[in-house]
Amino acid sequence: MCSYHSNAQQFGLTGGYLNLTSQNETPTLDTSDSDSGFYVGTFIDLDLTDKIHLQPSLLYGNVNDLNLIYLPVMLKYYLGGTGLNIQAGPQATLLLEDIDDLNNFGVDLSVGAAYDIFSSVFIELRYSFELTDRASDSINYDSSTLRTLSLGIGINI
After folding, report:
1. Is residue 117 part of a domain?
2. Among 1, 36, 121, 146, which is least packed by CB within 10 angstroms?
């Protein structure tokens, strides 16, 4: 006996609140406490099974005139027959400005949860912590990493 699962895909838009924190002292990046901004972007949600989805996204973020591009690839697992899912996956982060003594590219690990309010609208909360060190070799402090908290809403088109 063979079983066939149709891989559905949905395209959508997302946006919301973004909070950026710099871990360790970073003299050239003024986010040593916690700064807020916004993000907007697009995503594709691919049904791998009824409970497992893959969601790559392309997001633009702005915090205190700092412009970033986020490229998360989230694996989502739906709990029971609910619209609640937990998610985790890698994320690439690109600073669009050249900032002295910092590398523009970073790799993060993101974890979060989302809830499908309606069949085409969801809310999500994610926390990302950088796995790479942004400090260049030419500076005198140990390391610099970014942490991101995002709360947003998305709509499937």
Report:
1. yes
2. 1
Residue 157 lies in a domain: no
β-strand partners of 11: 44
Q: What integer pLDDT is reported at residue 34 of this predicted model?
A: 79
DSSP 3-state helix, strand, coil percentages of the chain (rounded to 5)?
0, 65, 35
Say what the pTM is: 0.86
The answer to whether 103 and 97 are in contact (CB under 8 A) is: no
Q: How far apart, in Å, are the Cα atoms of 66 and each of 22, 72, 113, 125, 138?
A: 12, 19, 26, 21, 22
Q: What residue numbers bound the domain in which 86 lies?
A: 9-149
CATH number of the domain that residue 20 is part of: 2.40.160.20
